[in-house]
Amino acid sequence: MRRTQSKEQSNRKLARLRAQLLEPGPGGAGTAGTGFDVSKSGDARIALVGFPSVGKSTFLSKITKTKSEIAAYAFTTLTAIPGVLEYGGAEIQILDLPGIIEGAAEGKGRGRQVISAAKTSDLVVMILDATKKAEQRSQLERELYAVGIRLNKEPPNIYLKPKKAGGMKITFQTPPKHLDEKMLYNILRDYKMLNCEVLVRDENATVDDFIDTIMASHRKYIKCLYVYNKIDSISLPHLNDLAREAHTCVMSCELDLGISDVVDRCWEELRLIRVYTKRKGIDPDFSEALIVRHGSTIEDVCDQVHRTLKETFKYALVWGASARHVPQRVGLSHVVADEDVVSIVAK
Ligand SMILES: Nc1nc2c(ncn2[C@@H]2O[C@H](COP(=O)(O)OP(=O)(O)OP(=O)(O)O)[C@@H](O)[C@H]2O)c(=O)[nH]1
Ligand SMILES: [K+]
Ligand SMILES: [Mg+2]
Q: What residue ranges carry the coiled-coil annotation (predicted)?
């Protein structure tokens, strides 16, 4: 008797939580843009974003040791569930998130919170259901766009500097295709930027690009990998069409198809670099990599090893893709490549 009651209670609690995901709660729509309370860990963070029941939790459970609840009904996942993906010595945090629905950006459900969590990631993996209609992708993109997330896009090539006085000074480096001086004056006036200097370097820049430049502190440029799950349930021609889309992978968590390809693609998109350090006369330790961002130099590698290492730095020896010959003797500004072996020689 007691057990039934408590089960009923917990069912009620779950029902309440699910309702909160769909409707704005007290304090509602305007608030709660702060994401979930999961601290960042590892070398990078990937957010799994998608409509309910596309297989986000199934995917997390496949690629990490974390088990996130999986079920056929919508809103099985009620909060952010972190897992760790180990890849060639790197640790990547994977955030399984509740499903989002249309209107999420305006605060419908916990949509805002989910999207805020996505905004903190280094890569958005958008999980899509291959059996659902094509609009799902643009619907989700619209939700992320509305909160300032720009997917697979570089920041606009427009220089904007606020000034104390002197009015607006607008210059186009090349004749613009979609803008003119009057338009920019009007937009700047709307945003109360009456004194500033503007240089538009990109002839293809649009009004949206210009507004993104003004709003730069509220914009986040993040890479996105689109992953169609459930390909076990679609026709081969349809599968071929999906697989050909840009920035796209296909998989079936159910049949264990394509999962490792998705993981490899995630790694490529993150553009992290593994550097193995080597002491003189000893073989490098390939079980422990230093992880640095794309474009990092020997100086960044030194900083990862120890805060003060570069003060005693004399030169480094590099073996691997970034070396012109092996080993190449290099200075602090040498740019490293994935899987380089580096030996740092101190004074
Ligand atoms: N046919 C098929 N079903 C799958 C596949 N992957 C997951 N599913 C099923 O899809 C349903 C939803 O999976 P979940 O992992 O709970 O989906 P989710 O995106 O985490 O859902 P929410 O947390 O509710 O947003 C479950 O019944 C899974 O068994 C797949 O590759 N093929
Ligand atoms: K589900
Ligand atoms: Mg889930």
A: none
Please check whether residues 198 and 68 belong to one and the same domain: no
Does one domain contain both 199 and 319?
Answer: no
- 173 and 262 co-located in one domain: no
CATH number at residue 292: 3.10.20.30
Are 22 and 74 contained in the same domain?
Answer: yes
Tell me the two tokens of residue 244: 């050909």
Give the chain's domain count: 3
Does residue 165 have its Cβ closer than 6 Å to ligand 1?
no
Interval 37-60: pLDDT, tens:
888 999 999 999 999 999 999 999
- Is the pLDDT at 299 greater than 50, yes or no? yes
Nearest residue to 208 (alpha-carbon basis) of 274, 140, 155, 130: 155
Residues 115 and 201 in one domain: no
Closest by alpha carbon to 225, among 137, 126, 107?
A: 126
- Pick from 53, 131, 227, 250 the residue to mutate for probing ligand 1's pocket: most ligand atoms within 8 Å of its CB: 53
Q: How far is the CA of 70 from the centre of ligand 2 (A)?
A: 6
Question: What's residue 30's pLDDT?
Answer: 37
- Amino acid identity of residue 1, one-letter, is M
What is the model's pLDDT at position 17?
A: 64
Q: In the prediction, which pLDDT does 295 show?
A: 94
